Structure formats: C-alpha cells, structure tokens
Amino acid sequence: MRPPRGCGGGPGLWLAVLTELCPSSMGSSDPYCIVKIDDETIIRTATVWKTLSPFWGEEYEVHLQPTFHSVSIYVMDEDALSHDDVIGKVCITRDMLAEHPKGFSGWVSLSEVDPDEEVQGEIHLQVEVPGSQDSRRVLCCTVLEARDLARKDRNGASDPFVRLRYNGKVQESTVVKKSCYPRWNETFEFELAEPAGEKLCVEVWDWDLVGRNDFLGKVVFSVPGLEAAGQEEGWFRLQPDKSKPREDDLGSLQLQVRLRDETVLPSHCYQPLVQLLCQEVKSGRQDGQVHLVTLLDETTTAECRQEVAVNLVRLFLGQGLVKEFLDLLFELELAKPCEPNTLFRSNSLASKSMESFLKVTGMLYLHTVLGPTITRVFEEKKYVELDPAKVEVKDVGCSGLHRVQTEGEVIEQGRQHLQSYLGELLDAIVKSAPACPPIIRAAFRQLFRRVGERFPQHQFVAVTSFLCLRFFSPAIMTPKLFHLRETHADARTSRTLLLLAKAVQMVGNMEPVAGRAKEAWLAPLLPALQQGIAQMKDFIARLVGTEEEEEEEEGEGRLLGPPAAVVKEGPLFVHKTRGKGPLLAAAAKKLHFCLTGEALSFGKSPGAECVNDLNQWLSALRKVCVNNPRVLRAYHPGVFRGDKWSCCHQRQRTGLGCDRTRHGVTLQDWTDPLDPAAEAQRLFHHLQAPTKGLSLSSSLPQGKILGATGAGGWPKRPPV
C-alpha cells in the first residue's frame, strides 16, 4: 500500500516469478506459488500442471508498510482430493533486499517448511531486574498481551499461553481460549542465578486438548543486558525456532525482486512539475527548444524506460492530455534521423508510451477482440505444426484400420487449423473498429497523420507496428499475462498460440512474406496472410476515420467529458481460507468486476450488481486506501458481541482498533491510473537521479520545481 500523504517512505515491492522450479526427486507435481508478506498471503500464481520445471512469468507490484520484515514465496503442490502439499519455500528479508538496491535476480534454493518456523505476531512484555528484595535478586517479567498470532486451530484462531524458561525453571501463564489477540497481564518472577549468565526465553504456544501443543514463537533476552539496562518494555516480534537442515534437494526458484522506497508528498507539492509538463504538451514541439519529455527519454536507461512511460501515460490520462502527449512524442520521434522500415520499432519513449497507453486504456477492447478465439484454441487443443523439423506423426483411423499419417498430411491439417483461427481472429479485428475506445482511435489518427507527413507509404505499418506487434501478438502468445485466461497454456496449446501470434505479426508487417520470412516453412500460409493484409488495411482505414467522424467524436467528447479508463475488468475469484491452510480454490465464488476511473461495478454477471458484495468491496477499498490521512490507522478484525470485542476484549464499541490497517485486504495488481501525485513523484525521482550537476536552464524555469527545495532548485526528499 502507498503510505499516507506526507509521511515517511513507503516501500513498493516489484516481484517477478519468472521461474523454472528446478527438478528434484519428488516425481510429478502440479506446482503453484503463494507469496506472503510477514506471513500474510497476498499473491497466488497460476497452477502449472504435471511438471517439475514450471514457468510462471508473472509480475506483481505490491505496496507495503514501511515496517515489513520479510517476503516468503511458498511452492505448493495442488491436490484436488486433499490439502495442498508444501514443496518448499524461499524467504527474503528486508535486509537482503537492502543489499541489492538495483534488485535481486537469480536462482534461490528451496528450504523445508518447518511448522516451528512458521510464526507471526508480536508480544507485549515488560522485563526488569529490580533492586534487592529481602536479600534476594529477582528477574521480573510481566506478560501483558499479544497480537496477530498464527491461527493454528480449525476455528480460525488459537488457544495461546506463555511459557517462560530461565535457569532450568519453567513457568506458564493461563490459556486464553479462541483468540489471536490474547491479554494476560500476569507477572512472573525468577530468582537470579549467580553469575547471571543465563538467558530468559519467553515462548508462546497454542494449547491443544488432544495432541501436542503448537509452537507460536518466542523472544529471548540476555539477562546481563537486562541488568545493565534495568528494564525493557515494548512490543517484541516473535521469532521462530531453529529448524533442522534438510539434506534432500527440494529444487530452486528463479526470482527477480526489487524493493523501492518512495515518499509521496501532498499533491500541491507536485503542481509546478505537472504544470510544466502540461504546458509543454499543450505547446507542442518547438524548434530549438529542449523538451522535458526529451530529457526524460535521453536520461533514462532502457530498463526503467518502460516504467517512465507508464508514469507519463497515467499522469496525462489524469490531466486529460494523453492524446496531445502522444502526439508530441510522435513529432519528436519523426524529427530524428530514421529509416521508415524501422520506425517505432525501437524501445524509445514514444514506443514504450504508446504500448503502455494501449494496455491501460484498451484491455477491455483487447478481451472483446481476442477472447473468443483464444478460448477456442484452449478448448479444442488441436495439434498445429508447420515446421517439418518438429512434426510428430501419429496413428489415425478407427480400430483395426490404423495407419500412420504422413508428414505432409500433418502439416496440411495444421495449416487448416491455423488458417481457421487466423480467419476468425481477423474477422473479429475488422469488425471491431466501432467498438475501439474513442481515445485509442484519436491517438492512432494522430499517428497516421504524422507519419503521412514524412513517410506516406508507411502510414498503415506505423499503426500496425503498435496494434499488432506490441498489443495483439503478445496477448495471443501469453494470454495469462493479459488476463485472457486464468492459467497458462499447456505445451500443445502454447505452440498453437505462438504460430498464431507469428501470423498476426506478419499481417502487421504489411508486406508479402514469400522468400523473406525467416521460417520458410510458413510459406503454405502465404495466401491467408496476403488476404489478412488487405483486411488489415481496410480495418486501419476505418479505425483512423474521416474528418467528419473525428469532429463527431470530439463533439461527443466535449459533451460527455474524457472517457474513463478501465483499470481492471473481468472475472474476480473471491477466495476463502480455512484455518492455517492455503487459499482454497473450492471455496471460491466467481464474480464479474469492472473498475474505471469513475465507477465500480461488481456482480454475478456483467451489468448485474450485487449491492451486498459491492458494499463489501467498497469496505475493502476503504481499508487499503491509507493514503487518505482521515482513514483509521487500525481496526478490529473481530466482532463486537455481547459487551466486548471478540478479538481484543475491549468493552468500548468505539475503542481504538487492535490491528493495524495494512495489506490484509489486497487488490493485488490494482492500480489507479489517475493518481497524479504518485506518478509525478516517480517522474521526479527519474529526473533527479541522472541530472545531478546538469544545467537545466535552457528548458526549466528558474526557481522551485517542488515545494521543498535544495541546492539548485531540486527538492529535498524528506528523511526516510
């Protein structure tokens, strides 16, 4: 979560589960990953069936509390008949992330999951060594309360008690039934040993009537240190027991993890920067002027240019100037020395911004166009192969009349299947021009005009280089990453999708491929590709429209205002947990969810809202929106029953919450594209880092960029 406006640094974690799980000696598995922040589940990846070398390729950006301690990734084996098994886990602490400021990338070995290692929560203690009492020296420990303990029982709670160990003696507190927020207020005394070289161990356990008690965590104090300090009081994080090392090879996980600390100031602090960017976009390209957008392009590395592009697109969407922003980028890109055949094919800021713009504003359109064909490919599971080097011949015919298909028959059959998929997809694209969001049509219209002024023969290719090569084809190749499917494709379906994506790319290239394609075996598809090129040209002509259509759309835009960008749309699975187990797919309900910059709909089907569920979702939104300083910092996870709260036993209904508001309620990859303060902060960070010592007098106004400034007019970041 983003921190409150004006408060200290709020870390954002960028996690890419890119991985292959290195095979071990476990046999076949159906692996998936669960990601926990401080023992709190926030992410579940897709299940990859029947493999020991899965590839997920999923990326997440999670907003965290500044006080988080660790990130744990559990590799699970899904079992439809019983509880899912834990294969192993990887734990990455905050200190480990701090040692890699540019991010960690590589293979990490899985470790065994020991129940005694799986602890969470904190305990409130007061430990002191008071003065002499009746010629005795005593060690006094007051156990006050605990919070957020692990849930070990089937009822979703625990029955915690405290066990204290010192100098071979053991004392125990009373058991608090069915609570993860127990209160004891009990004091224990031990006679100090001479010399006082022992340690005081405070352990928390879950009492069980049948079977052994479950370990919930411990805190260890050095008694000589207590003698020197006199007293220690506060909340102490429970620590695990030391687990025994396991000799078996559980495999390893490949990860990319990066922690980013950022401070988002109040919106008015960023107004000068936002106004400067907006003024530049409204003025358009000026000969001889160094543009701030150009400065961002030239001073950012290839690795972070994508992030800068996303920030700019979201910022200008919020300002209603995204069309003008993209038009300025088109002008600046076309003003550079370039070849028409490589136009917008590089990873420039213009290319990345247009790609990000399509993903932010066009996901609903993408699902409408590609959804039916992608679903058909997944359901039919046809064998499609055109490469003779990869063809697998197989038996055909009925019982008793088997014969082996020839290589040519297999290829011809694959061509027919692929041509059928391609034809259906192209028909859907051609018919989709009226359904394309007006803001996307306006952007392509501007691109079509700008390219026509310099390279008239390449207007259509300029549009398809974005629409086909950077939008449609990647979504066809990996539909899971574009939320078109809930799971990744199997090997056969993946090959079909890859060939279909290649075909769409060739149509997008707008030229005959005979004799020029790297894969000569795609030649049988040439007639369908040539027909597709003609269809695509007709579609682009209708997409960019005429002058009259443009005026009509602009008139509607003036009446209706800027269209609301779809942030997230599609089926939403609400998962429930039982006890300490993982997320249960069987205990999930499917709902249709659509969130735009202006409205939220939530129901069992599109257009049908469920008021109760919608109110629950709005409540979840309120809990996670801690960027509003008026939102409560704490809440009660229990209920007020009788005369007290079930979680903390407070007797005041309006008493302060006992649990911090944090990412316990998560929206996963939900982000608001219309939050200018957050986007301006990240843009300022990119400007600040590479431009130290660089004179900006030619393009930036004198004086302050943000509210609080340091030397040279650049703002000082508040201490983190």
UniProtKB/TrEMBL annotation:
Does Zinc appear among the keywords?
A: yes
Database matches in Pfam families: BTK (PF00779), C2 (PF00168), RasGAP (PF00616)
Coiled coil where?
none
Family annotation (Gene3D superfamilies)? C2 domain (2.60.40.150), GTPase Activation - p120gap, domain 1 (1.10.506.10), Pleckstrin-homology domain (PH domain)/Phosphotyrosine-binding domain (PTB) (2.30.29.30)
* UniProt keyword annotations, A-Z: GTPase activation, Metal-binding, Repeat, Signal, Zinc, Zinc-finger
Q: Which residues form the signal peptide?
A: 1-27
All residue ranges annotated as the Ras-GAP domain in the record: 304-509
Gene Ontology MF terms in the entry? GTPase activator activity; zinc ion binding
In the record, biological process GO terms are:
intracellular signal transduction
UniProt cross-references to SUPFAM superfamilies, sorted A to Z? C2 domain (Calcium/lipid-binding domain, CaLB), GTPase activation domain, GAP
- The chain positions of domain C2 read 1-108, 119-236
Entry-linked InterPro entries? C2_dom, C2_domain_sf, PH-like_dom_sf, Ras_GTPase, RasGAP_CS, RasGAP_dom, Rho_GTPase_activation_prot, Znf_Btk_motif
Checking SMART domains in the record gives: C2, RasGAP
Q: What is this protein called?
A: Ras GTPase-activating protein 4
